[in-house]
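Proteins fold reproducibly. Next comes a concrete instance:

***
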Amino acid sequence: MSLHTQYLESFLRSQFYMLRMDGPLPLPHRHYIAIMKLVKTGENNWSLPELVHAVVLLAHYHALASFVFGSGINPERDPEISNGFRLIPVNNFCVCDLANDNNIENASLTGSNFGIVDSLSELEALMERMKRLQEEREDEEASQEEMTTRFEKEKKESLFVVSGDTFHSFPHSDFEDDMIITSDVSRYIEDPGFGYEDFARRGEEHLPTFRAQDYTWENHGFSLVNRLYSDIGHLLDEKFRMVYNLTYNTMATHEDVDTTMLRRALFNYVHCMFGIRYDDYDYGEVNQLLERSLKVYIKTVTCYPERTTKRMYDSYWRQFKHSEKVHVNLLLMEARMQAELLYALRAITRHLT
């Protein structure tokens, strides 16, 4: 995160407030929830402020897991090392280089030349698609009916985007170590099968849709959170806006590039996977801008972060700098958190009414 200092400051402010400042939950409860990422009330009755505080903590750490694993900060088992674990290197650099201020910006350009020509052509093709979509948008806007159809198509297709461990282009051997790590902690889990499930089953004709206009973060979620858990709404809103608008106007070696379209596609695709639709967005842009390998990466990082591997990280946008891919992970993390908050806060709102 230190590669994006403006965002890092916002992130640390909100996390510190959740864990250390005045709030409905006692300090030990906050850390327990953060560690377990699971609330079981038992015989205890939770007040609404305590519930909201817990929901914010859960959403925060669920999303943070996506960033941690997606950025390669997870240990993998290695039989050649005495303690059995090693840090995953990203583009020939260990993640510890971040802390040591080593230069990793151009790591993807200074490594092996394998695939550089292909990745350069992929970059140029992506920029050409962005240019064409912008021109088409200016010439003629799609009708509401057409945009609804495109969303439903993208939503259904997202159910068939498999996570990394079942994607045919990644050999099973790349994931064997991850499965070993999972089995090591299973003894501490009451329900080993508990985890992410798609919001709808494959083959269903009418998939549920969460219309963002009916319950938005700006008009509904923000005010509810701030009312029941003072000031956290402002900190979260600052963080969401920061990552959504963060840009350096670059794409790999290209400068003065408007990346708004690309950032919005990434954010909205995560919400689409959770069935959230924005009426004013043309989801045809998602298919044009996000390649298949990137969609697999997004679904794995967002829904099954522990399955993420370096091969998946390297498989998309190969000419992009490491800092730009970290930027992608920040977008995915905040989109994931906002999606979870929208569902949870809408349920609380319904309970109150």
The beta strands are 75-77, 85-87, 89-90, 93-94, 210-211, 250-251, 254-255, 276-277. Residues 5-77+124-352 form one domain.
